[in-house]
Write a structure and sequence with these properties.
With 72 residues, the chain is mainly β. The chain has a single domain, classed as SH3 type barrels. It is 8% helix and 50% strand. The chain has one helix and five strands, in the order E-E-H-E-E-E.
Length: 72
């Protein structure tokens, strides 16, 4: 029998992320319902998942970010 873990509700936020090397990622971040993008960026975890427009999941290191533009 498979173990079922509790799920935390998430919201999908569209965002553009500009990296320090000039690359711009367009897609979505997933946040807890009560969390803002700023809260996620200030959290101590160095990486966060990002799903680009092609549906590819990327782990983005916060040190590599130059700018984030959320479309909330």
């Amino acid at each position: 029998m498979a173990v079922r873990y509790p799920q935390i509700p998430k919201v999908k936020i569209r965002a553009d992320i500009a990296l320090v090397d000039g690359t711009v990622l367009r897609g979505h971040v997933f946040l807890e319902v009560t969390t803002r993008v700023q809260d996620m960026l200030n959290a101590p975890i160095p990486f966060f998942p990002f799903v680009d427009e092609a549906g590819v999941v990327r782990l983005v290191h916060k040190v590599a970010i130059a700018q984030v533009r959320p479309y909330e």
